[in-house]
Amino acid sequence: MTPTTPASTSKPGRRVIPWIEGVLLVLFLLLPLAIDDFWVLFVTRVFILGLLALSFDLVWGYAGILSFGQALFFGVAGYCCALLATKAGITSILLLLPVAALAGLVVSVALAFLVILGKRVPTSVFVALGTLAGSYVVERLARGWSYVGGQNGIPSLPRMTVFGHEIAEGPVFYYLSLSILALVYVGLRWLTRSQFGLVLAGIRDQEARIAFFGYHVQNYKGVVFAIAGLVAGLSGGLYAFHEGYVGPGQLGPVLSTQVVLYVLFGGVGTLIGGIVGVAMIDLFSFYLSQLWETGWPIALGLLLLIVVMFKPTGLIGFLVTSRERVGSFGRRTPKPKNDREVAAAVNEVT
Amino acid sequence: MNASAASASILEARGVRKIYATLTALDGVDLTVTERSFHGLIGPNGSGKSTLLKSIAGAETPSGGTITFLGNDITSATPAERSRAGMSLKFQITSILPALSVYDNVLLAVQAQDTMTALLLSRTRGPLHARIMDMLAQFRLDGRADELAGALSHGQQQWLEIAMALAREPRLLLLDEPTAGMSPQERRATGDLLAPIKDRCSLLIVEHDLDFIRDICDTLTVLDQGQIVDSGPTRIVQNSEKVKEAYLSHA
């Protein structure tokens, strides 16, 4: 009996993701030469929220953790940086960004102890509700706490500095964010293609089975959750200084849910999909809001719904096969044989 | 076979009970699996074979009794802990990872012994390569290492899963109906593929196909309605009157 799966999905084919990554990198490097200040700010924001999308894609797309709490790490990091800048006068980026990453890490580890780590594997629904509740509670706390500005948040943040020079919004902040995004991206790409990434691929598809191999699934999930918290924190710190403001909205379920949509729309489990998702949704929102001033969220919502319902692999799914999305982890096997040898091998074993 | 090696027990279940609401699936079952033996577990449908196997593997928690593996009480250990102690399981329903290549499926099983740090740094994928290819060759899958596991035939998926369960060199392999859905040729081949592992590990196997189990098992335990009907060397048990009665009364 010969398997009927099409050759394109059963044999590794031409890889598309590296091309998308390369094209986007060149595009982003050259873009400031061609666009005005408004769009430089716009694209910088895409990079920063792209980091947040990467963080959600890592937990959901790679480790199967449905987290509705990514904004929590993002927001707490933003608040920590804002307090340091306004109350302690610290503006050095060399201090603020590590603090942002650390804040995200600490909060995510604390939350992981509550909702992920335990003797038995928690259900997806439990984790989703637990992270959502965390995000909601902290937003409410921030709204009611006058030390952090209550409803108004903390406005008019000073600019970050590097060796005494201010980092102004515009091309400098643009390239700063792009470099951080690229570094984090490369790090996560490496992580998800490692043998550790293979365990994650196993957890995503057959979580119960993996434990019978001897993997402590919760520990793997905990580590991924913590790394994602760190990335979200970094994103939150950058966002606070780019916008010059932090507020309770940056902590809550609304932003947490928005990130979910970014990643679903762009393509879950691809890393690059999250960044594409941010860019596309924010572009659509911008143009739709000009076309239809009051009703544009309806149009956007319909568009998202169509993609999520009919293309579960998101926009990236139009270009990338599921084989490439999952990828391969082992040592490179010898060059694919020619068709005749493959056919002979198939006959031999069947 | 050497008598002292054959008599050393590696798994002991004592008085294992499993009760689902009003149904008693296992009613005080004792079972001993000795070193390097192929032990078959048979019985009519609903006799509790699978429940016993799952209780041993950690997929079900017994309501009473103890299970000892290599001298340690594992009654309440998690599946991961049992696996690390040297127990491997192949489920009744094939649960390979269809979206990964055949090669990566085995890599995932083999690398489970490594530390998380080693996996983060991908330190073991080179050194494990030879062992993975060897495992695949044993199960006649080396020609398809690069293909998606989901593209294999049903029988080959079962073999892949047995290869994965064996790849970590367990002391005890638990197989739940390995030949279900296989063609007669595939069944014969499965028996041939399993025979050589006897010098490495013990096997506890639940199976419907009596011919298959007679061919490969040296010990048989027969369950009926959650209790042991008979247990002992295959050639004696298969002719036992009690066993025939248990099977015939349900036939």
Q: Give the helix tally of chain B.
A: 11
The most extensive interface between chains reads: A-B, 46 and 53 residues
CA radius of gyration of chain A is 22 Å
What composes the largest sheet of chain B?
6 strands, mixed
The number of distinct structural domains of chain A comes to 1
Runs of chain A with pLDDT <50, length 5+?
1-10, 334-338
CATH architecture descriptor text of the largest domain in chain B: 3-Layer(aba) Sandwich
Tell me the CATH superfamily of the largest domain in chain B: P-loop containing nucleotide triphosphate hydrolases
Which geometry of chain B do the CA atoms define? globular
From the alpha carbons, calculate the radius of gyration of chain B and give it in angstroms.
18 Å
Listing every helix as H and every strand as E from the N terminus to the C terminus, the arrangement of chain B reads HEEEHEEHEHHHHEHEHEEHH
Q: Share of helix among residues of chain B? A: 25-40%
Number of domains of chain B: 2
In what range is the share of β-strand residues of chain B?
Answer: 25-35%
CATH class membership of the largest domain in chain B: Alpha Beta
Q: Please tell me the overall pLDDT of chain A.
A: 87
Taking pLDDT < 50 over at least 5 consecutive residues as the criterion, the unreliable ranges of chain B are: 1-6
Main β-sheet description of chain A? 2 strands, antiparallel
Structural class of chain A: mainly alpha
List keywords for this structure.
heterodimer; A: 350 residues; mainly alpha; two-stranded antiparallel ribbon; 14 helices; 68% helix; globular; disordered N terminus; B: 251 residues; alpha/beta; Rossmann fold; 2 domains; six-stranded mixed sheet; four-stranded antiparallel sheet; 36% helix
